[in-house]
Amino acid sequence: MQTHNSSLNRRHFVQSLALAGTASALGLPSTMQGQTSSSERKTKLGLDNFAVRDMKWKAPQLIDYAASLKTDSLFITDFGPFESLDDKYLKEIRAKAEDKGLQIQLGSWSICPTSKTFKKDWGTAEEHLTLGLRVAKALGSPVFRVVLGNGDDRRSDGGIEARIEDTVKVCKACRSRALDAGVKIAVENHAGDMQAWELVTLIEAAGKDYVGANMDSGNATWTMEDPLASLEILAPYVVTTSLRDSAVWESENGATVQWTAMGDGTIDLNAYFAKFAALCPGVSVHIETISGFNREIPYLKEDFWKVWPKARAKDFARFLALVKKGKPREPRRGSNPQEFQKAEIEKSIKYCKESLRLGLKA
Question: Residue 334 has what pLDDT?
Fold first, then answer.
C-alpha cells in the first residue's frame, strides 16, 4: 500500500525535474537551476599563460600557479617559459603537470612566412611548425596553437586571402608530421586577422583531419563578430580555446571594444557556454584575460572597408545588435601590471567555476 508521504515525495521529484528543465531551457543562471555536483561538470577549465604574461614565469611556476587555481589544464602559448626544448626536460615538465592533475597544451606564434608578424626566431615557417609539433608531442599536448598574423596583414599585398594561401602551404608541408605526432595544428583567429568564416576557409583548404581552430572570443569582437556567432561558425573545427569577456558599445566612428574579466563584459556568457558545451564537447576552456584598454572599430569611416571587402552582412548585423546593448566605459589599468593581471585571471577563474559551472575540479 502506497503511503501519503511517498506520493508527495514522488510529486516533488517530478516537479523538481520539470522546473530544472525549464530553467535550463531558458538559459537561467546555475543558481536558479539548483546545485550541480562536481561529478556533473563536463567542460575542462584552464589558464592561458598570456593572462599573466608580465610575471615572466617559467613552466614550473606556471604549473604551480595553475594548480593553485585548481584548473584542469594549462595553455602555454609560447616557447619562452621553457628553459629547454630537449625531450628529457619537456618530459619532466609533463610529469610535473600530471602530478598536479594538469594537462599542458602548447602554442606559439605566426607560421605565415609573409605575415608582418612572422619572426625567424625558430627558422623558416616550416621549421617553426615542425619544432612545435615535436615539443607538443613530448609535452602530451593534443594541439599546437599557431597564428597567421594580425589585422595589418589585411592591408598587405594580396590581402588576407594571399596570407591564408601562404599559411595553408606551410600546414600542408607538415601534414605527415602532425599526423605522425597525433597533434592537431590549431590556428587562431588572432588580433583582427581573420573572421570566423575566413579561418574555416583556411582549415578546409589545409585539411581538417590535422588542422583545427583555436577559438578566441575576444578577437572575434575585433573583427566585427558577436562571439556567439563566431562560436556557431567555428564549432565543428574547434580543438582548443583562448577566451575572455568583452564590452562593446557605440562610439563616434563606429564601435569600441574593451576586453574584460569574465562576467564583467556585455556578452551573454550563460548562453555562450551552454552552446559551447553542446557544440564543442571535450574541448578545454582556457581563459586569457587581457583587460583594461579600449580599441575602436571605425566602421563608419569609408577607408575602413577597404580591408573588409568580403565582410558578410549577416555577421555584421549580429555584431551591431550586440554593440547597441553596451554603454561606454573608461579604460582601466592597475598601477601594477603584475597584480592587475593576477587579479583579473583569478576573478575570471572564480566566476567560471561558481557562476558558469565550468571545470572538472570543485
Answer: 80
Q: What 8-state DSSP symbol labels residue 322?
A: H
Structural contact between residues 257 and 295, judged by C-beta atoms closer than 8 angstroms? yes
Give the pLDDT confidence of 82-116 residue by residue, as tens digits: 999 999 999 999 999 999 999 999 999 999 999 99
Residue 290's SS3 state is coil
DSSP 141-189: -SEEEEE---GGGGGSTTHHHHHHHHHHHHHHHTHHHHHHHT-EEEEE-
Which amino acid is present at 26? L
DSSP structural state of residue 202: H
The set of residues, in sequence order, having a beta carbon less than 8 Å from that of 255 and lying 6+ positions away, is 224, 248, 249, 296, 297, 299, 319, 323
Residue pair 106/139 in contact by the 8 Å Cβ criterion: yes
The reported pTM is: 0.89
Question: Which residue's entry shows cell 573583427?
Answer: 223
Q: Return the closest-CA partner of residue 117 out of 186, 188, 184, 51.
A: 188
CA distance 133 to 204: 20
Question: For the chain, what are the domain ranges?
Answer: 40-245+268-292+336-350
Residue % of the chain over a pLDDT of 70: 89
When computed from its CA atoms, the radius of gyration of the chain, rounded to whole angstroms, is 22
Gap between the Cα atoms of 36 and 55, Å rounded: 34
Do 253 and 336 contact (CB within 8 A), yes or no?
A: no
Is the CB of residue 245 less than 8 Å from the CB of residue 261?
yes
Contact 316, 281 (CB under 8 A): no
Q: What is the mean pLDDT of residues 210-216?
A: 99
Cell numbers 591564408 correspond to what residue? 164
| pLDDT at residue 242 greater than cutoff 70 | yes
The per-residue pLDDT for range 127-160, each reduced to its tens digit, is 999 999 999 999 999 999 999 999 999 999 999 9
> Residue 227 pLDDT more than 60?
yes
Q: Residue 3, Cβ neighbours under 10 Å: how many? A: 8
Q: How far is CA 148 from the centre of its chain?
A: 16
Helix, strand, or coil (residue 110): strand
Tell me what pLDDT residue 40 has: 61
- What CATH number labels 40-245+268-292+336-350? 3.20.20.150
Question: CA 91 to CA 315: how far, in whole Å?
Answer: 44
d(CA 228, CA 186): 20
